[in-house]
Input
Amino acid sequence: MSVEKQGTHSDVLIIGAGISGLLCATELQRSGKRVCVLDKGRGLGGRMATRRMAGGRLDHGAQFFTVRDAAFQRYVDEWLQAGVIREWFRHSQNDSNAAGHARYCGHSGMTDVAKYLARDLEVHCSEAVVSIVRVEHRWQVKTQVGHTFIADQLVVTAPLPQALDLLDSSALDYAGADLEALRAVRYDRGLATLAILDGASGLPANGHLNLDGPVVNWIADNQLKGISEQVTAVTIHATSQFAAANWEISDAQRGAAMCAAIEPYLDASVREYSCHRWGFTLAVNPWPAPFYANDSLQLMLAGDAFGGARIEGAALSGMAAAQHLLLSASLQ
Output
């Protein structure tokens, strides 16, 4: 992963270093395109996020992914062979096959996939985009730290409301009659509480528990999952209803409420906790196609607003965007 080049010209500039943007970049680079990826965060992967806390290691966004599509399976097989990911568990309920789809996780955390994909890409983190302009049939993207990136084609994989806000700065009619429908795509909010326990959690051996309560819908023991070796560290996900209703209250209030909700399911007590807000989790009414393209402007939108809620959906969206871009370029 390179972070040295600034202001260089690329064939394709991708905004967003989540799974969609990174797989889009990988597909394009493997086809000979010069690609640059920007992300406003310090790390990679979007909601495929892992963090350290009080000696523990926790996946605090997406907890696993499944695979059903053959194109995505080829990448998953590569990651398995490279030791980047492993199977966490299987669950047959609501699955289409009797054995159940494998739930995969990163070997040491969900961000491992993003780090692996980025190793051969030009990726610039901590580059929050502040303006996008079209000059002489090229895109010029300026970031908060004062850098300018130039490209022939632009792919935006940030959450759709953020992507549209960025494109509005271009003063272009980039979506025409589709703009209203694009703006109508909505996301649930998410709230995670990360907790360190004073002993073994007592959760099932596979390390996770789905709940059907008003406050919490998921608990995962990252030690049983195999990524927090020394400390029992649990990830608690709130229901979308609780997250929305408690979005503006203090971490002390909402974190305490979430910890209280899981007490009956644990054999240990919470020693300390921290909260994390996810402004964009699941698109509740995703766009009905895997990407949005304006070929005359050499602009594409992709990501989980197009591919659907699962990580695989976001991945396939980025891959489909790359193939469309390559096809359109070959026809010009």
